[in-house]
Specification:
By secondary structure, the protein is of the alpha/beta class. 37% of the residues lie in helices and 14% in strands. The chain has an eight-stranded mixed sheet, with helices on both faces. Strands 10-9-13-14-15 form a five-stranded parallel sheet, with helices on one face. Helix 6 (135-144) links the parallel strand 5 (124-127) and strand 6. Helix 8 packs across helix 10 and helix 8 crosses helix 11 (290-300). The protein is elongated. The structure holds nicotinamide-adenine-dinucleotide. Nicotinamide-adenine-dinucleotide binds at residues 17-23, 40-43, 46, 92-95, 107, 110-111, 114, 129-130, 162, 164, 166, 269-270.
């Protein structure tokens, strides 16, 4: 039967390849609507967790997984043979970069190679992994066509970027509009139809390339604006101006301004990574994107600035960084999430260890944290989150807030820590003992 009525009747068999931060919420939403959903992942532990009805992703509760598994609308497997029986296949696998920051498409290639021998006429493949313009047509399509089937005629192919924002209590899969670009108008229409079952609005663009660039524009916009405010934050410190006060004031303008905030750097799977995908691709066109490298340089410089700030704070107390006890609070890549990938805390800790500081950390959501990478701190080591106690705070020389989780009691922290370096103005509400707080982007307390 044609795919369109199968989607409308919620009978289309949906496969989500890659059950991570992006794929698992998507699979659960379709399963909740009654679609028969299969999750396909190469990670056997994740497959086993789903079979037990358990979640391993912060934004999806175990109750939600258990419900759809029990109802029989969702199951997971590591066997790619299931792809043969699917109507719609979403690819949600990682797109990281290499050590030298070139795109690593190996997961997308592997997923496409798994689909090719299973491809059947009428199937719709939607790539969701963030990538450079051209991936769907230049990298995925030729692999799929090794099946002997032709894209746009025998099967459908589209790209639709993901806009998941982990830890966001307001926006989720169900209330965030999506963009889609199909290989043909029919591919786009079918992808729109399936996505419309979940999202309030699906916006079609003329090609997969336009959709691929849309996602990169969104993240480059963030990276560049964060870099701008990070640079202004450093200038503010020298000028004895509080950048946080300035951002608050500028935000009273009801048009033409959008606040971005300084911090210890950018992290996660998107903002520090995706711009490089475009930077790399642009060179094929004799084009060198200056904003991307400039923003990366400024953002990646922030952990070094945090180190300078810690040194300054210790100096003010007559101490040196070497042998100092430094407690890092929050190692996730942003506050209130359980994801520490590319976290700025990693570089901050590596720089501290390289300087001879004695480092420990606390993060309520991240029990263990591995640091240590070739050029920065050669001996990789895994640190374990330690419980916050008055005694622990009091034996520190400095406490550094890197991810300012909402769950922290900042009054308590400032009361018991001898010195606080606050990289994201998390202590803004603290009234007492402000002379102990050294904030990024703000004048230092008087000596
Ligand atoms: N995490 C986010 O907030 C976010 C937001 C927007 C876009 N994205 C993009 O979405 C994509 C996925 O990101 P994520 O954060 O969900 O990654 P993730 O690492 O959390 O999950 C990816 C999953 O894919 C699985 N996988 C790898 N190769 C596979 C294969 N060949 N077949 C089946 N499964 C395979 C992995 O085992 C893993 O479970 C990336 O391109 C990322 O840039 C992520």
């Amino acid at each position: 039967m044609d795919l369109e009525p199968r989607i409308q009747r919620k009978e289309a068999r949906i496969c989500v390849m890659g059950l991570g931060y992006v794929g698992l919420p998507l699979a659960i939403q379709f399963a909740r609507l009654g679609f028969p959903v299969t999750g396909l992942d190469v990670n056997e532990e994740r497959v086993a967790a789903i079979d037990r009805g358990e979640s391993y992703i912060q934004d999806v509760s175990t109750a939600e997984v258990a419900q759809v598994v029990e109802e029989g609308t969702f199951h997971a497997t590591a066997d790619p043979d299931v792809l043969k029986k699917m109507d719609v296949i979403f690819i949600c696998v990682p797109t990281p970069f290499t050590k030298t920051k070139t795109p690593d498409l190996s997961y997308v290639v592997a997923a496409s190679e798994a689909i090719a021998p299973c491809l059947t006429p009428g199937q719709l493949i939607i790539l969701q992994s963030t990538t450079y313009p051209g991936t769907t047509e230049e990298d995925v399509l030729p692999i799929l066509e090794t099946s002997g089937l032709e894209a746009g005629r025998d099967f459908h192919l589209a790209f639709s970027p993901e806009r998941t924002n982990p830890g966001d209590s307001k926006f989720n899969v169900a209330n965030t509009p999506k963009v889609v670009g199909g290989l043909s108008p029919r591919c786009a229409e079918l992808a729109k139809l399936v996505l419309e079952q979940l999202m309030p609005e699906v916006h079609i663009v003329s090609s997969p390339r336009a959709a691929e660039l849309t996602k990169l524009l969104e993240n480059i916009f963030r990276s560049v604006n964060i870099a701008l405010i990070n640079e202004l934050a450093k200038l503010s410190e020298r000028m004895d101006i509080d950048i946080w006060e300035v951002i608050e004031a500028a935000s009273t303008k009801p048009f033409g301004f959008m606040p971005f905030y300084p911090g210890p750097g950018v992290g996660g799977h998107c903002v520090p990574v995706d711009p490089y995908y475009l930077f790399w691709k642009s060179r094929e066109y004799d084009f060198y994107l200056r904003f991307i490298e400039l923003a990366a340089e400024l953002n990646q410089g922030m952990p070094y600035h945090v180190l300078a700030k810690i040194t300054e704070a210790l100096n003010a107390a007559g101490k040196t960084l070497r042998q100092a006890r430094v407690l890092v609070l929050g190692v996730s890549f942003k506050p209130d999430v359980d994801d520490a990938r590319n976290s700025p805390a990693q570089r901050v800790i590596e720089l501290l260890l390289s300087s001879g500081a004695r480092v420990s950390y606390n993060d309520p959501r991240i029990a263990q944290f591995t640091v240590g990478r070739d050029v920065f701190y050669r001996d990789a080591q895994t640190l374990t989150s330690i419980p916050l106690t008055e005694e622990l705070m009091e034996i520190q020389d400095c406490v550094v807030i890197v991810a300012g989780h909402k769950s922290y009691d900042y009054d308590w922290i400032v009361t018991h820590a001898p010195l606080v370096v606050d990289t994201m103005n998390a202590t803004r509400g603290v009234k007492a003992n402000r002379e102990k707080i050294f904030r990024v982007g703000a004048p230092s307390p008087p000596l």
